[in-house]
Amino acid sequence: MEANHRSAAVAGQEGRLLRLRCSVKSYEWGRIGRESSVARLYERNCKAEAEDGKPYAEFWMGTHDSGPSYVAPETATAAAAEKELLSLKDFIEKNPRAFLGDKVYDRWGPNLPFLFKVLSIAKALSIQAHPNKELATILHKAQPNVYKDPNHKPEMALALTEFEALCGFISLEELKSVVHNVPEIVEVVGTKYVDELLCVHEEDVKKAKEVLQLIFTQLMAASKDVIAQALSRLISRLSIKNEARELTDKEHLVLRLEKQYPADIGLLAAFLLNYIQLKPGQALYLGADEPHAYIYGECIECMATSDNVVRAGLTPKSRDVQTLCSMLTYKQGLPEILDGVALNPYVHRYPPPFDEFEVDRCILPQGSSVGFPSVPGPAIYLVIGGQGTISEELVAEGDVLFSPANTEITVTTTSGLSLYRAGVNSKFF
């Protein structure tokens, strides 16, 4: 009876926009209460009240089992309907080709290939990387309780506010400067590897990667006592220098991080990573096997549908240093910062070099409208601010709509509207 009821609920919905009730994550690094955009979205989306002293870190939109979205009932006041909410995953599985389109279904099966999020960060996330597809399959099979799925997780962060992150390894030239200016790193890894580094020429990329891997692995594998002593000397030295000269941005950052994660190896590792500061509307993408840590700010995040994380620093959680150090690419240099490609006066598109997703940023002034053409794949629309209509559906802050494949969308507003769209990368079709 229940299966028949659910099938009836899906029938006739294939071409319609579906309102979603989404999941929220209260990790300890999230902003507290209504200071968090995630909390405000949660209140409006789920018709719930945020708790004042609780951190609200991530707002999830998609079909991942760790944070599923549900199709909202037609009448929000129907208590019985609330108890029988269908997950978006279950909804799609009833007629996946109609909802996802043939090409998406043939490539990724009956689930959305992307996971869409909003992050609200008060405290730095761990230094981490996400495994490639092959490694994710191996890790999931060996430790399914830790690595929740067999998928890779390339991702992109699009800044909503000023946003700080550590991302990728610094250049060879900068690394040589670090070992000259941060003696505590030399104390931990030893002069042998540092001497090797100083002899590497810029054009010898392979050798540079080999030596960087040796230095990073030696650093991350150091004992807690060795790290504690080195950090004590580092913090003392920086505090004294701060009275004599202006510290560098990286040095200021390390002092900030020390207040959040005292005696953590991530404080030294931060010197080896690029410190990135994004302005609202700027984005960076992160391929598999690249080290990174989000530090502060709020962002839209989109990724392949996965929740696999390998951590090694700036965290009280379980670390897998051996896996992290062996999986990284050790590519050096600044990551590419994306400003988006203007599709029209109101919409900028951020297409990463992955098939699974792209993100559109739409800022509509009052009294305007814009169209999103029909595409042979699904999309999710998130309203961040303002109010208006999405194809005749009244929308405001916190509303999330799922658009099936081959659905043309028109967005209008009389007062102004800010929304973000995630969909399969247009280059895939």
UniProtKB/TrEMBL annotation:
Enzymatic class: isomerase
Annotated ranges, domain Phosphomannose isomerase type I catalytic: 17-169
Cofactor note: Binds 1 zinc ion per subunit.
Domain Phosphomannose isomerase type I helical insertion: 202-273
Alphabetical list of CDD domains matching this protein: cupin_PMI_type_I_N
EC code: 5.3.1.8
Record-level GO BP terms: carbohydrate metabolic process; GDP-mannose biosynthetic process; response to cadmium ion; response to L-ascorbic acid; response to light stimulus; response to zinc ion
Cofactor: Zn(2+)
PANTHER family hit by this protein: MANNOSE-6-PHOSPHATE ISOMERASE
NCBIfam families documented for this protein: manA (TIGR00218)
Protein name, entry field: mannose-6-phosphate isomerase
Organism: Coffea arabica (Arabian coffee)
